Amino acid sequence: MKVYNITPQVNQPSFGAVYLSDGARTVLKKRIKSCEDVEKIQKLLVEQKRNKEVDISLYSLDKSNRLAADIKSKYPRTSFQKQTKKEFLSFILNKPVKFIESVCKKANAIARKVDSEIVKNDMIDKL
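RESULT FIELD:
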């Protein structure tokens, strides 16, 4: 076996980004009816870009008119959370603006957890 490169390849995402897939853009074009809703979504996405602890990826399921989202944080332990029945129903029933608002709220909660994790780890390191 030949080894050409022993340095690890690190894929470090730039946290604070909001990714919108082509499918998500198509869903938004189909389901959003007013300019006010577009402005609300723009405002939410700009606010989330300031959130440097998490990334949000918005996408649509295959040939669906529904949005889905992934929230990833710097610390993997806070990225994956169990989905409740209420969250699943909001995923199915809510309008895109409400869904994006709920995703942003969840991202903010994860960012607060990451901040508290950083403070806790710093305090432990100083012991």
